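Q: Sequence in, structure out?
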Amino acid sequence: MSTVSASDPFIGIQTDFLPLLGTDYVEFYVGNAKQAAHYYKTAFGFQSLAYAGPETGVRDHVSYAIRQNKLTFVLTTPLRAGNPVADHIYKHGDGVKVLALSVDDASKSWKETTTRGATSYMEPVRLNDADGEVILSGICTYGETAHVFVERKNYKGCFLPGFKEWKTMYNPPSTGLLYVDHCVGNVGWNQMNNWVKFYEEVMGFRNILTFDDKDISTEYSALMSKVMSNGNGFVKFPINEPAEGKKKSQVEEYLDYYDGEGCQHVALATSNIVDTVSDLQARGVEFLKIPTSYYDELLQRVGKIDEDIEPLKDLGILVDRDHEGYLLQIFTKPVEDRPTLFFEIIQRKGAKSFGKGNFKALFEAIEKEQELRGNL
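A: Exactly. Output:
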């Protein structure tokens, strides 16, 4: 494994031609946005935020925006067949369509990236209402996933022009999810380095971590991954590709069922993973099961941690350490019938890595689920 520290001087934001302020929102194309919004509110603790649809002048789709702290999801559904949203869902099932990024200048961001070779997804457009102006632009990335640049410094509304505030009596309490830590993309055979080059050349990202098939493998399957980060470290995109193994890897299963490349999982940050995961489980969110033997030598491997082992063991939370601290993480089962999209819950206590020491236990747990589905 090779590593580059995100604090290295040459990654400094002073030379960043595409300064990013973080993840603005994640948009999912789904079969039933009204029900999906209810699920994410009930199970994950989101709150109603904004709505767009026929009542706001949109004729072919509806969108519900939901929010929890600095974490915003948009759930979009087509109202009829024969449009890009409907076609996307027919091919891929429910999944991530847009990873939207906050910027100071959406027009400049679009020009910088398209000049460097990006395919345009959306030329700069100005959206206005009584609360001000938002400028959006966008570029295409792996599969049918897009990055939309969002400039909202002159806007005071609840979400975006074209949306109205969505007020509901039903707003369950937060589960303590804070913001997007990272988003992982699965790409096809021998495509990882092409997309690494894209993020380096088009968006100015750096490869801060590399995992090969020796790092990420079990007896049966393997994959390779490279973590891409923008200049200030606010946005991180690990890119996975399959590697040769005795049986089908989780990336291959994803590509088969998603019918192409796409966003495999979104990692959601919390400041108290034990409380958050306990709450999520009580609300019905299902997580991968880790063998209890994982915890037998945990402290010998990671050293002293602040948390008691027993709650971590009961919940199935994984722990790993790097030279800057440690992290705690856990992964949900797929949140829909296709074994594609899932979520990671992560708490960082100094660590900037991605849980290399947990890969074997995690992927063995994933393989058990693949075997139950007959896809290993």
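The chain is about 25% helix and 35% strand.
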